[in-house]
Amino acid sequence: MMPWGHFAVAFLPYLAYRLVGHRDLPSRRATVFLLVASQLPDLIDKPLAWSVHLLPSGRSLAHSLLVAAPVVVLVSVLAARRGRAELGPLFGFGYLTHVVGDVYRALLYTSPDQWAGTYVASLVWPLAPVPASETTAFLHYFLRVSPARYGQVAVGLVLFGLLFAAPEIRAVLERRRLPGDTTDDDVAVRTADHRFDAD
């Protein structure tokens, strides 16, 4: 799954949760935090596997639940100590959706006796070996992506940008009226005041 796919898998459910449960949009800080969490396994594993060859695969160390679990607990504890306890579950959600997003097809469409030969083994690495991934530079990896995919990404980025800039857009659309402007509510209040004075 490409980086934007991982972010979408994490962000869209969170967006729905905020809209339905809280009737507001996610904060920018929470959105950026979720973005980083949803990319973190690849940001760790792929450079260590592709560039410096310290890992056997771009889905190994940080994709393992044996590593993910203590990392999520650690971040949750640190967030709670800083008075931001709500960021712990958010980080865990973003991180774990990435891990599951990489292996869900194998989990669904491959029989358990064949999981050892797939990336499902990354969930318990290093207890089970993972398929070796090709070594390539990051730039070359993204250059191989079809232009049509980047077109889809561009549309998604525009929509996300509009959502991210929602406070500014709302402020422009609902800008405070200029001094001296009157509304129907103002007229109604003035009429009521006049009647009160007359009585």
UniProtKB/TrEMBL annotation:
Signal peptide: none annotated. GO terms for molecular function: hydrolase activity. The keyword DNA-binding does not apply. It comes from the Archaea. The keyword Repeat does not apply. It holds the Pfam family YdjM. Keywords: Hydrolase, Membrane, Transmembrane, Transmembrane helix. The chain crosses the membrane at residues 61-80, 87-107, 150-167. This is LexA-binding, inner membrane-associated putative hydrolase. It comes from Halomicrobium zhouii. The lineage of its organism: Archaea, Methanobacteriati, Methanobacteriota, Stenosarchaea group, Halobacteria.
